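pls read this stuff:
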Amino acid sequence: MIKQRKTTTKFSGGTKTGKKKKAAVATGMTKLAQLEALLRRPEGATLHQISASIGWQIHSVRGAMSGTLKKKQGLTVTSDKAEEGQRVYRIAA
């Protein structure tokens, strides 16, 4: 004779799948939105300006411009060398 185990299911309430996730609210204040806003300015922005305002390291800023803005969102990011020798990045209109 085989013993059968008694199974109990803990139910957390709500739905059969458990807890519901709260819907994310797009506030426009994400760091990627801030990066895009800086690049959309007519004067553009340097890597150091972006890094200081967002709080990212320079290599992270370059990666976000290349990966998220260029490849995923399909935006055209241009760079010009300013008189001081720093590159100024802009989103082409």
Q: What stands out?
A: The radius of gyration is 24 Å. Residues 14 and 22 are 13 Å apart (CA to CA).
